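Internal tracking record. Fields below are filled automatically when a chain is submitted to the structure queue. Please do not edit lines marked as system-generated. If the sequence contains nonstandard residues, flag them in the REMARKS field before resubmitting.
Queue: standard
Priority: normal
Entity type: single polypeptide chain
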Amino acid sequence: MRGSKGSSRQPVTVRTARWCATHPWRAIVGWVLLVVLCLGAGVATGTNKGTFADFWVGEAGRAEALADEGHLTPAPVEKLLITGGKGKFDPAAARSAAADLERRMRTLPSVTDVDGPIRSGDGGALLVTVTLRGDKETAKKDVDALLARTAETQRAHPELRIEETGSASISNAVNDQQGKDLQRTEMISLPVTFLILLVVFGAVVAAGIPVLLALLAFAGAVGLYGPASWLFPDAGGAALSVIFMLGMAVGVDYSLFYLKRVREERERSGGTLSHAAAVELAAATSGRAIVESGLAVALSLGGLYLMDDVIFSSIATGAILVTLVAVGGSLTILPALLAKLGPRVDGRRGRANRSRSGNSTEANRRSGRGSSGSGGFGKKGSGSGSGNSKVWTALLRPVMRRPLATLLVGLAATAALALPALNMKLGTEGTETFPDSVPAVAAYDRLTAAFPDQGASHLVLVRSDAAHTGAVADALNRLSERTKGDPLFAANDGAPSLRTSADGRTTLLELPVPHTQNSPEATRSLERLRAGLIPATVGAVPGAEVAVSGEIAGGFDYAAHQSDRLPWVVVFVSLACLAVMYAAFRSVVLAVLGVLLNLAAVMVSWGVLTLVFQGTWAQGPLDFESLGFVGSRTPLMVFAILVGLSTDYQIFVVSRIREAVLRGVPTRQAVVDGIAGSAGVVTSAAVIMVSVFVSFLFIDRIEMKQIAVGLTVAVLFDAVVLRALILPSALALLGERTWWPVRMPGAAAERLDSKAGSPYASTAPAGYAGYAEHTGHEGAGPR
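SYSTEM-GENERATED OUTPUT FOLLOWS
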C-alpha cells in the first residue's frame, strides 16, 4: 500500500471498509449497538400519529375544517345489524335482541346515545345505531368494548345474526388483518430469500449474511421512524409494509452485490488474496455503486414529499430510512463480517478452486493472464471477460450483431405492454375495496343492502354571517327537496338532516347516497351537487361559503389532488435520477438513457396494472374482486419505488461496463463483458426482489396486491427486455458516443480491430483496474 498521502486520496468507502475489515469486532458490535439505539429511540419517542386534519385535501378538506370550527363534525357511530340466522327472520325475536343490545351498550362509558331499532324497507332487518364519545381516533380505542357486547348479545340470541360495523370497527379489523398478513409474508419471504441465496452462494453463512443485514436495516429503520414521525406524522402504519418490502429488497441486493464482488476477487486470485484485501477491492467498485444506488433510491422516494400528502410523506420517510440504513450496513458491518468469517463465506466451489489453482493462479494473476474481464459466478465463457456467464454471452451475441432490429423489437414490446395505461381509471380506497373476509366489512355490505341510506353521504357545510342563518337553512331545505326522486340520491321522505353551530354561523346538511363510493353514480351525484344544485340554492345566499365533504367527495378530491401533483413528482424524480446517473458516470448520454429506461419500466408496469385490475380475467389466480379501477395511490407508489430500484440495477450493470472500458476494452465488447459478467448477481437480485414482491400478493388487501403486481412485472420486464434487449442494443448503436462528453480509453479501441495483443488490453487484474481508477493512483491495489 501507499503511505498516508495515498490513503487520504482513497474514497471514503475504501477507508471505511479497510477499518471495518481490520477491526471487525468493533465494527460488528458498534453496528448492532447502533441498531439497538435506533430501536430504543423509537420506543422512547413513540410514533406521532397524524391527526385527521393532516388528511384534509381540496374542497372536502375545507368542508372538514368548517365542520371542525363549528363543532359539527359528526360523532363516531357504530351500527348494529340484526338479521335472520339460518332460519326465518323473527321480528319479535329481533326486537328482543335489539332491546338487549341497547341495554348492554348503555352500560359502557364510551357510549353517549343509542338509537333504534329501525326496520328495513323489506322488513328483514333491524338497525341499532350507537353513538360514541370523542372523535374517530378515540372511537378506535373504545370500539373493542362495543364489539365484546355485540358478541355477548349474539351468544344470547343464537337464532339471529347480530353483527357490528362502522368506521372504527372496520379500520381496526382491516389493520389487524393486514398486520397478520404481513407476518405471514415475512414467514414466506425470509426462507425463500435464504434458499435463493443458498443456491447462489453454496454456503449457509454467505446466504445468511444478506438476510441478516436486511433484517438489521428493517429494525434500524423502524426504530428511527419513531423520532422521524414527529417531523413527518405517521399515516396509520401505512409505512410499515413498505419499510419491510423495500428493506428486504435493497438490504439483500446491496449485500449480494458486495459479497459477490468479494468472492469474485478471491476466486480470480485463486484464493491467495486475503479476505481483507478482497473487501477493500470490493469497496472501491461495488461499495461506490451501492452509495450511488442508495442515493438514487432515496432521491426517488424523496419525490413523494412533493405530493403534500401525509400518507406519501410517511411512506417516503420510512422507505428512505431503510434504504440509508441498508447502505450504511453494507459499507460497515458487511466488510467486518466478511473479513471475520473469512473462508466460511467462500463456499465449496471457492475452496475447490483454491486447492486446484494453488500458487500457479497467483503467478497468473500477477502477470495479468486470464484477468481481463469483470467477474461473474466464476463460470468461464467467451469474450474478453474471464468470469462471464456463457448463457448471457450467447444471448447477447445476436443483440450485438443486429442492435437496431433488437432495439425496435424491445421498443415494440414496451409499447404493447404500456399502451393500456392510457385507459387507466383511478379510484380511492374505501369500504368496498376492503376484503369481505373482514367481518365488519361483510357486515357493512349487508347493512347497505338492507338500508341504502346508511352508506356513503354528502356533507354540505355552509358558513355565513349569523344574520343569514335563516336564509342558509331555507336554501338547504330547497337543496334537499331537489334531491327527492333523484336516483343519484337516497330516498328521503322526512325532514332534512340539518345541524347548526352554536354561534349560528355554520350549518351542516347530510345527503345520503345509495351507491358505493367509487361508483360512477356516486361521482355523478357529487358533480350534480357541486355544479348545479348548490349554485342554484345555497350559492345564492350573499357571502355564504359552501363546501362538500363526505366519503365520495373526499375520495374524488384526493384523486384530483394526486393528479395535479403527479407531474411535479415525475419531473423531480426524473431530474434526480438524471443527476445521479451523471454524477456516477459523467455521461450525459447514459444519464438520459437511464431516465428513459426508468420511464419505460414504469409505463409497462402501469399498463399491466390496468390490464389486470380493471378487468376480471385475473381475479381467480390473484384472489381479488375487480373494482374496475386502480387505486389512486398505487401508480405513484410504483413509480417512486420502481425508478429507484431500476436506477439501482442500471448503476451496477453500467459500472461493470465502465470498468471494462477503463481497461481499454472497446465499448461494444465492454457491453457484453459488463452485462454477462454481472448477469448472475443481478439476476439473482431480481429473483430475490420478485420473491419479496410476490409474497405481498398474499395480503388480502387489493391495494397491496396492486403494488406487488406492478413492482413484480417491472422487475421482470427490466430483466427480460430492458437489460437483455434495449440497453445493450442502444449502447451498441451509440458506441463511443455512450460516454459523451468524456473520452474513455475504450473509445480509441473502438476504432481499431479487436485482436489479441492490442495495446489497449489491460495487464492488470479486473478488480485492481477498477480500484486504481477509483482511488486515483496505481499503487493502491494488491501487490
